[in-house]
Design brief:
The chain has 2 helices and 9 strands, in the order ββαβββββαββ. By secondary structure, it is mainly beta.
Length: 154
């Protein structure tokens, strides 16, 4: 009936195809969600407009002792967190800026690094130098044009 979605799945190793039905299908494609809708011919006039937003993090040498995390309120009303990462590092994040480009290859900008370093320095008596950044894990997420839907893709 019309109360179900029917999906045909294919096992590419064996070539087998089979069909399943479900009352709901979740598109968990992250920043590629619009592309999945388009190739599936599921875009309608009611499909919300989406935009990509990049969130960047930095991994620096450990900033403090202990296993606790900090949530640092910034003058621009955003928050930045600092959490212990593995044994010898701290993870600092996150930024939030519009992203255009290949969602599989986000790169932290110098402005984001400066923002995160300044955010930490307001609260922790340590100035993380941009040069001390060990890694900069980034992700791209989508936000609907109305700003209410926030799907995260790592």
């Amino acid at each position: 009936g019309t109360d179900y979605w029917y999906v045909t799945l294919k096992d590419f190793r064996r070539g087998d195809e089979f069909q399943i039905s479900a009352k709901m299908v979740v598109n968990a494609a992250g920043p590629w969600v619009r592309g999945v809708l388009e190739v599936s011919n599921l875009v309608t006039d009611n499909t919300p407009a989406l935009r990509l937003v990049k969130g960047s993090h930095m991994i620096v040498p450990r900033l403090y002792d202990g296993d606790h995390a900090y949530i640092l309120q910034q003058p621009d009303k955003r928050i930045v967190f600092v959490i212990p990462y593995q044994d010898e590092y701290s993870l600092i994040g996150t930024t939030d800026e519009t992203f255009e480009g290949d969602a599989a290859k986000p790169v932290i900008s110098e402005a984001e690094k400066e923002y995160l370093c300044a955010a930490v320095n307001r609260f922790i008596n340590f100035i993380p130098a941009i040069e001390s950044v060990k890694r900069d894990p980034n992700f791209v997420r989508i936000i609907s044009s109305n700003g209410y839907i926030r799907n995260i893709s790592i």
